[in-house]
Design goal:
two-stranded antiparallel sheet, alpha+beta, 198 residues, 26% strand
């Protein structure tokens, strides 16, 4: 209630000063007539956490994949790797297999492994971070390569009871793709090299 009274005094004083009205009241000492100023503490903001990727939702296909170009190859390779966590989380390898050539041992092994994990009642799927992607056109409109640098966090697998197990330490890797365009992207092979010193 006292604070409301002080605020009211300030409002009246400002109204009189701006209206130009004179009063017959004796002048008062400014030190005693002004209400005390109370500092309002600034609220401390907590850092906003990064959004968590839901690996059970399939990644969005980039528009650049529609073009048989170096940029399209880089986008297709990035999309393919972003599917990696999804297939391990869900066991749904349909899109992954559609993009995989019969010559791609990495592609077929990953699909079979993801399906086996899902069939056992377990699930995996740790989202990766692609830090760079570059495509190269070898034969116009047909043959391409793409290079990705990927950060893989420690891989966690969850069993049917909900118990978590770390299955790998993770790391940084360079992926080298050989790809073909035949109306859509096909991954012919994938080479993987760990990046040391990172």
């Amino acid at each position: 209630m006292q604070m409301r009274a002080q605020v009211a005094v300030v409002v009246v004083a400002v109204a009189l000063a701006t209206s130009g009205c004179a009063t017959d009241a004796e002048p008062t000492d400014d030190a005693t007539s002004k209400p005390p100023v109370t500092a309002t503490p600034t609220p401390t903001l907590s850092p906003t956490p990064s959004p968590t990727v839901d690996v059970t939702v399939p990644p969005v296909r980039p528009e650049a994949m529609a073009t048989p170009s170096a940029d399209g190859a880089a986008a297709a390779a990035s999309y393919f790797i972003s599917l990696y966590a999804y297939i391990y989380a869900t066991g749904d390898t349909s899109t992954w297999r559609q993009m995989s050539a019969a010559t791609c041992a990495f592609c077929l092994d990953a699909a079979a492994d993801a399906e086996a994990i899902a069939a056992s009642g377990r699930r995996g799927g740790t989202p990766v971070e692609i830090t760079s992607a570059e495509g190269i056109e070898l034969k116009p409109g047909e043959w391409f390569t793409a290079g990705l640098r990927v950060i893989q966090p420690p891989t966690i697998e969850v069993d049917a009871s909900g118990n978590e197990t770390q299955t790998s330490d993770g790391g940084t890797y360079d992926f080298d793709f050989a790809m073909t365009w035949s109306g859509d992207w096909i991954v012919d092979s994938v080479g993987i090299e760990p990046v040391t010193g990172e």
